[in-house]
């Protein structure tokens, strides 16, 4: 199993450009998440999904959109990139389990710089 | 609402000495508690979790954590630190029925040779 993979690993954008980050998992997990990690801020949840075809907003959703058309993929889109979106982005997945007691599996991250 | 506090941004310890990374939590209902480790330029990796049962939980790489309900704490410990343990450590909490874990801000562990 590859686990959770993210594409691309690095990207540099100019302000106003758009891009899509792809997260894929091969563990048949129900739940998927997008986080951003900034120095001193820990992990902040952008959007999440509890199943194919469903998405919901997290703590910092502004400027981002997501889609989960297939169970194994969770896409994060930036329609018009801003320098404030310079960050490291992590995707995670988690198997279904009542009560939230299952751990998350994280991808390796995408380092995004917006100039 | 649920929350996690990691009161130390950085912990320094000498190789061979015991280490403790602190975590306290607040949650309605029974907590599910997790520790993750992040090595430089990598994603987070699961270390251990407390769901129920024995308050002392053992995990990967010789780490363990002690759940203390009265103090609402879940401190990460290791009897003898290695230089290779140097990394960023995150504590997280969920509660029954929650899809969304809440993470602490992370503690940087530096083990000196």
Sum this structure up briefly.
The complex is a heterodimer of chains A (115) and B (113). Chain A is mainly β.
Write the layout of secondary structure elements.
The complex is a heterodimer of chains A (115) and B (113).
Chain A (H helix, E strand, L loop, with lengths): L3 E4 L2 E4 L5 E7 L5 E8 L3 E10 L2 E4 L6 E4 L5 E6 L8 E8 L10 E2 L3 E5 L1
Parallel strand pairs in A: 2-11
Antiparallel strand pairs in A: 1-3, 3-8, 4-5, 4-9, 5-6, 7-8, 9-10, 9-11
Chain B lengths: L2 E3 L4 E5 L4 E3 L2 E3 L4 E8 L5 E7 L5 E3 L5 E5 L4 E6 L8 E9 L6 E2 L3 E6 L1
**Ranges of chain B with pLDDT <50 over ≥5 residues?**
none
Largest sheet of chain A: 7 strands, mixed
Structural class of chain B: mainly beta
Please give the radius of gyration of chain A in angstroms: 13 Å
Number of helical stretches of at least 4 residues of chain A: 0
Regarding quaternary structure, what we see is heterodimer
- Tell me the distance between the termini of chain B: 41 Å
Tally of extended strands of chain B?
12
